């Protein structure tokens, strides 16, 4: 199988995430987090936090410590993202995370990751995560651009309408699935211009 990764969507409002590092890569990861989740339970520890990152943290009241990582930083942590500029330190922190069963991403270091971040298409409630199994993040970004252009913003209205209808349907599970498939069948149809 050319991509054995299993995709999931995490609820970061309740899963505590620790970001280690306060440089450019940390800022990229923080931006990706906040673009997807406005109020994640995130905190940051880094020996030195660059001014741009500090501005980002202060603007959102994100808790941070400007000092080197300590193992005790992992208490109550469920997920860790490591973005430090020292491979040996990254590997050591990853070990501490593994010993506590914390799911860990070591930015730009696939061999040390339990999971990868994806490129993400967002249209209202619709969210599509893209993975190339680490083969090319740049291609993932390009696929995101293509999908962003191909989905109209109205897809969010469609979702809201169907959600409302879903709440009014009666009958057993099979009957509900049948009705929802019928109502949404137009979405899968190609238009004349696409044929
Ligand atoms: C999707 C995205 C999410 C995010 O980070 O938020 C993401 N990388 C993004 C961008 C990006 N990253 C890099 C470039 C420079 C061009 C290039 O190298 O291609 C660009 C392009 C750019 O910035 O334009 C550098 C890079 N990245 C990795 C390596 C190491 C290696 O490949 O070995 C190196 C080389 C480091 C070096 O040279 O030292 C590894 C990983 N990067 C991943 C995710 C995971 C696999 C995702 C997948 O399956 O595709 C994985 C495996 C682990 C992880 O970090 O989670 C985000 C898209 C943003 C968007 O959608 O706009
Ligand atoms: N910047 C990029 O575009 C880029 C691209 C590809 C790969 N990388 C790699 O990603 C990693 C991070 O890059 P960056 O640009 O963010 O680096 P950076 O130097 O800007 O930031 C590194 C951060 O790690 C912190 N740090 C180092 N040791 C620490 C420790 N023991 N405890 C806590 N914090 C510690 C530093 O204080 C700093 O905040 C590097 O390995 C780099 O080679 C960066």
TrEMBL record:
Pathway assignment: Porphyrin-containing compound metabolism; siroheme biosynthesis; sirohydrochlorin from precorrin-2: step 1/1
Domain of life where this protein originates: Bacteria
Record carries keyword Oxidoreductase: yes
Key words of the record: NAD, Oxidoreductase, Porphyrin biosynthesis
Gene Ontology biological-process annotations: siroheme biosynthetic process
Enzyme class: oxidoreductase
Catalytic activity: precorrin-2 + NAD(+) = sirohydrochlorin + NADH + 2 H(+)
Molecular-function GO term, any one: precorrin-2 dehydrogenase activity
Matches recorded under Gene3D superfamilies: NAD(P)-binding Rossmann-like Domain (3.40.50.720), Siroheme synthase, domain 2 (3.30.160.110)
Enzyme Commission number(s): 1.3.1.76
NCBIfam families assigned to the protein according to its UniProt record, in alphabetical order: cysG_Nterm
Name of the protein described by the UniProt record: precorrin-2 dehydrogenase
Species name: Hufsiella ginkgonis
């Amino acid at each position: 199988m050319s991509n054995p990764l299993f995709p999931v969507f995490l609820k970061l409002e309740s899963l505590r995430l620790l970001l280690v590092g306060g440089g450019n890569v940390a800022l990229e990861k923080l931006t990706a987090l906040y673009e997807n989740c406005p109020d994640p339970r995130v905190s940051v520890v880094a020996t030195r936090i660059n001014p741009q990152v500090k501005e980002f943290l202060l603007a959102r009241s994100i808790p941070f410590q400007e000092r080197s990582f300590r193992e005790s930083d992992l208490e109550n942590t469920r997920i860790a993202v490591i973005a430090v500029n020292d491979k040996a330190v990254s590997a050591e922190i990853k070990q501490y995370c593994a010993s506590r069963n914390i799911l860990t991403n070591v930015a730009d270091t696939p061999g040390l990751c339990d999971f990868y971040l994806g490129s993400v298409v967002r249209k209202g409630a619709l969210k599509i995560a893209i993975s190339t199994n680490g083969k090319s993040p740049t291609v993932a970004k390009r696929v995101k651009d293509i999908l962003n252009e191909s989905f109209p913003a109205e897809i969010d209205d469609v979702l809201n309408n169907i959600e409302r209808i879903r709440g009014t349907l009666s009958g057993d599970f099979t009957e509900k699935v049948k009705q929802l498939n019928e109502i949404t069948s137009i979405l899968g149809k190609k238009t004349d211009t696409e044929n």
